[in-house]
Amino acid sequence: MARSLGQMFKGFLRLGSGLTTRTPCPPGPGSTHRASLLCTTAALQSFLFPKPRDLSLPNSSWGPDMMRLYEHYNSLCEVETEGEKQPGPWRRLPSYNRILKYATGGVYLSKIIQSKARLFTRNIKQQGAAFEYVVFVNKEEQKCVCVFQAGHLLEGPPGHVHGGAIATMIDSVAGTHATYLSGLVLTANLNINYRSPISLGSTVVLESFLDKKEDRKTFISCKVTSADGSKLHTEATALFLSITVSNIIGM
Ligand SMILES: CCCCCCCCCC(=O)SCCNC(=O)CCNC(=O)[C@H](O)C(C)(C)COP(=O)(O)OP(=O)(O)OC[C@H]1O[C@@H](n2cnc3c(N)ncnc32)[C@H](O)[C@@H]1OP(=O)(O)O
């Protein structure tokens, strides 16, 4: 068990270093033996380690603000220089309904380990009903941005988003950011100031910034603003502590 968890978190830690890289299948005509071997290996790999469904991609429930902001940041993930496409300053992070699906073989692991468990923010199957979001990270600026559309199941005060749901998103985005920067972490402290309510169904932007890193501690601040950036909804600071796999096993 400890070994499989070790493998699992090795995959998880790859989040910060090009997790989604896969062997491309070369074009058919004129393929060499080596190329077809590569293709077979890739096919075998995808059979043995099926890709989990990425829930951070657009679906039909996404409104105009959500789509506009997604397309804006997505366009910054790739830049064209002298006719060639290069990685841009931003990167979209994939998102699954269990964190262990980041590991190689995570789809199978997910069936073996507490098979009914689901990531809190990704456990509602009805598209658009709860948390619709996508996270982008900018390594150079050490910054994360999340575009979040809050569905009708997240109601707190009538017509508005529950404070716990907002806290959940802040913890998730700041936690993802801290993981990206520092590997495996747990939230030790989260302070939130709610400045103005968020309407149900609206799209907001969460921005997460690295304040400082000290040994095991990663300090992050986060703010939530309206889609056009004109209104501040929420501000937060958080402390994440780096942990080891044995911390999780012993939990
Ligand atoms: C890719 C997808 C990623 C998705 C991200 C999802 C993010 C979700 C994140 C979470 O929700 S995690 C779940 C909620 N958090 C927890 O359940 C954590 C529960 N708490 C613990 O397990 C432990 O308290 C913890 C691991 C955080 C710390 O215990 P340790 O024994 O490792 O640390 P220790 O108590 O020795 O403290 C280490 C340092 O941190 C400081 N510290 C600990 N807790 C603190 C605190 N709460 N506030 C301020 N400082 C704190 C402590 O003072 C000390 O400072 P110094 O080294 O300077 O002396």
TrEMBL record:
Protein name from the UniProt record: Acyl-coenzyme A thioesterase THEM4
Main localisation: membrane
GO molecular function: hydrolase activity
Tagged with keyword Cell inner membrane: no
Any GO CC annotation of this UniProt entry: mitochondrial inner membrane
Family of the protein in this entry: Belongs to the THEM4/THEM5 thioesterase family.
Enzyme Commission code(s) on record: 3.1.2.2
Any matching Pfam family: 4HBT
Chemical reaction(s) catalysed: (5Z,8Z,11Z,14Z)-eicosatetraenoyl-CoA + H2O = (5Z,8Z,11Z,14Z)-eicosatetraenoate + CoA + H(+); (9Z)-octadecenoyl-CoA + H2O = (9Z)-octadecenoate + CoA + H(+); octanoyl-CoA + H2O = octanoate + CoA + H(+); dodecanoyl-CoA + H2O = dodecanoate + CoA + H(+)
Origin species: Sphaeramia orbicularis (orbiculate cardinalfish)
A single GO BP: apoptotic process
Annotated ranges, domain Thioesterase: 159-231
